[in-house]
Amino acid sequence: RDVIVRRRQIAVLRMQQSRYKCEFDMSHSLFIAKATGCPYLEAHHIIPIRFQKQLHGLKLDSLNNLCCLCPACHRAIHHAEDNLVKSILNRVAEKRDITKNFGLSTEDLYRLYAVEDIVRQ
User: Fold this and answer.
1) Contacts of 65 (CB under 8 A, 6+ apart)
2) What pTM did the predictor assign?
3) Which of 22, 63, 81, 91 is the most buried (most CB within 10 A)?
4) How far, in Å, CA of 69 to CA of 38, rounded?
C-alpha cells in the first residue's frame, strides 16, 4: 500500500485562514485544544487524498483542497446520511471552487463519496 505524505503546515495555514471556525457552519461550538491553545478543528481533504493516483497530475494535498471542520462535521462527511454529506460537500466545494481548481463537478465529488443519486430505469 502506498503512503501519501500529508503536509501539516498546509493544514495549519488553512486553519489560520478559516479563523479557527468550522467551514460548514461557523456557529459550531469548538473546544480549545490543549496542544495549540486554539479552537480544535480537523483538516479534511475535500477530494479524498486516496484518489491522488487516479486523478493524474492533481496535487490533492494542497490549500485549495483542504477545509477545516469541527469534529462532528468531519465525522458526518465520512459517516452521515447522504443528504448531510452532500450539504457539507456543497458548501466546502463551493468555498474552494473545486470545479475551477480541480475540474470536478459536484456530481463527480458525490461519486468519490458514494453519495451520488442513482437513476433507475
Assistant:
1) 45, 46, 47, 59, 96, 98, 101, 102
2) 0.89
3) 22
4) 14
User: Residue for cell digits 460548514?
Assistant: 24
**pLDDT for res 120:** 54
Residues 68 and 43: beta-carbon distance below 8 Å:
yes
Reply yes or no on whether the pLDDT at 74 is more than 90.
yes
Residue 98 exposed, middle or buried by CB count within 10 Å (0-12, 13-18, 19+): buried
Evaluate if residue 118 carries a pLDDT over 80.
no
CA distance 84 to 56: 29
pLDDT for 121 beyond 60: no
CB count in 10 Å sphere of residue 40: 15
The Cα 114–Cα 112 span in angstroms is: 6
Distances (CA, A) of 119 to 34, 106, 109, 116: 47, 16, 17, 9
Burial label for 104, CB within 10 Å (0-12, 13-18, 19+), is: buried
